[in-house]
Amino acid sequence: MRIALVGNQNSGKTTLFNLLTGNNQKIGNWPGVTIEKKVGIIRGTEHEIIDLPGVYSLSPYSSEEQIARQFLFEENIDLILNVIDATSIERSLYLSTQLLELKIPMLIALNMTDLLEYRGIKIDLELLMERLDTTILPISATKKTNVFNLIQTIKKQDYRKNNYTHIYDHVMEKTVQSIEEDIELNHKRFIAIKMIEGDMSYEHYVTEPILEKIQALRKNYQRDLEQVIADERYRYIEYIRDEAIDAKLEKETWTDKIDNVLLNRYLAIPIFVVIMFLIYYLAAGPVGGFTVDLVSGWMDSIKSWTFDTLIALNASEWSASLVVDGILAGVGAILSFLPQLIILFLLISLLETTGYMARIAFFLDRLFQKLGLSGKSLIPFIIGSGCSVPAIMSARTIPNETERKMTIMLTPFIPCSAKLPIVTLFAGYFFEEYAGLVSASLYFLAIMIIILSALILKRIFVKGKPSAFILELPHYKVPHMKFIIRDTYEKVKEFIHHAGSVILLASLIIWILISFSWPMTYGIHPDQSILASLGKVLAYIFYPMLGTLSWGTSVSAIQGLIAKEQVVASMAIIAGLSEANSDGLLIFGSQTFAFFTAPSAYAFMVFNLFSAPCFGSIGAMRQELGTTKRMWVAVLFQTGLAWLLAVIIFQMGSLIGGLIS
Length: 661
What we know:
Layout: E1 2-7, H1 13-21, E2 25-29, E3 36-41, E4 48-51, H2 63-74, E5 79-85, H3 89-100, E6 106-111, E7 121-123, H4 125-132, E8 135-138, H5 147-156, H6 170-181, H7 188-197, H8 208-221, H9 225-244, E9 245-247, H10 254-262, H11 268-284, H12 286-312, H13 317-335, H14 338-354, H15 356-370, H16 378-383, H17 388-394, H18 401-410, H19 420-430, H20 435-461, H21 481-515, H22 530-546, H23 551-558, H24 565-578, H25 598-610, H26 615-625, H27 628-660
Helix pairs in contact: 3-9, 6-7, 6-8, 7-9, 11-12, 11-14, 11-20, 12-13, 12-14, 13-21, 13-24, 14-21, 17-26, 19-20, 19-25, 21-24, 22-23, 22-27, 23-24, 25-27, 26-27
């Protein structure tokens, strides 16, 4: 069978999917969008299950809802497995009534039943099944309760086939049935109701007879028919609730107690600042710095052994240099920071799974409203801490076009995982025991830059009020390390794949350009290389933020357009080939970059953090902004602002340093 897993956001759907499939799952993206698509095989069966995005209805107001509805309509689905949060049945049943109208067999998994007794809720399961005319199985995905029985029920197909009970009043029901007779498509009842609601997706299917029936219905109710349908659904849901659910006055839950602190009017933002500071302090501070030194030492040993081995095998000097000074120096410089990325990914995933990320969006919404954005803009910003490409594309879920464009232009300012090696390298070398503090300061500087840029863009773009932001705050959950480790593993694997492809190719090109002169002579000094001649032209652009003409630094910074990691990889290759007697430090053991001071190092980090992102992100901006012109406006705005900030920081830092001296 093909089974669609459907449910509200935060209903435990993903947890249940992982339990049902184990390791038998594939993760990709839905066609045309970057929203994650998960497909798996239920354990002990040959049944395929597809995890649809979390939705609250099948009205296509968001890309998630469009995906869910399109899939249910266009694919041959044998069963809908509808996951319902037992502690919020009233909200969940709105989607359930729509799913039943599709006339596809549906089985309900009543999740989080372990919380019912604590929250003082009693459910008459038999009566609830009778009213909905569908099989309902109580489960707890987090505690793995009754999941085996759910699998067996699916395996034996031991569930009702849903002869759906009518829920509308007599007039509405009679019209729905009448319109059904005029429709020659599948899912007739669902389509008939959507036609009555005025859903634009079915406008071209509305014939003259159907239109007359809808107009007659509109005259009868004298109000918006979409609202009439919604009212009828909720009336039926309330009827079910009153009959089958006995909810006592709920006592204060742990979620309520925690929110009293974390969402406190005065404490929310300071707590957020402390949490984010700790995350970047751990990732880039003493703990992360120790791992970098450790891996760097291993990489140096590997490079020495590889070079000696190749020479012993009579390999030519240029081929040994290509492997060691090109491939291993470039890719190895990036992989040295892998432990830090693992720490960062683990901590971000921990915040997401506990439910705290939703709270961040909630309390920052008021600030974002003043900037011409909404709380929904925070989602791309959070995703951007991993990679800017999916972050930029996730902005398509923002319905307001102006807010979406602003979010797309501002998202690359968030320090992504590719920028972490730059931060770690410079902070660790120039600021030593203050490396964690400096790294965290760059994250908060990014927030300040986003606020400043938003105020600038607001004057250019925003007309009218920002869109409303409605968000469900999930219950706090104890994180499952198994799922956090799996999520971190997927992100790390993607990073390694990136380093093994784009960085490898770019490193080879850099080695060729620095190893040969224009007449294609090998073995020349790097100052006479093709790369140096190009870099010397660019050096004048970076002089105001560095205080010197450095072709190596300039070339490395420009390579950030290919991939931000390549900045470090390029500097490692240039330093390695420029100095024969390097003392072993990754880059700064070489005299090639010895001119850096604390102000110029910080300025260089700022430029690379806030300048135009990598080619992949620029391509995503082009796709989401809609035109090449808008893309160039975004790129020039980002790079121009980054250059200006870097120059100001260097000049002010040098002035203060001079006064102190």
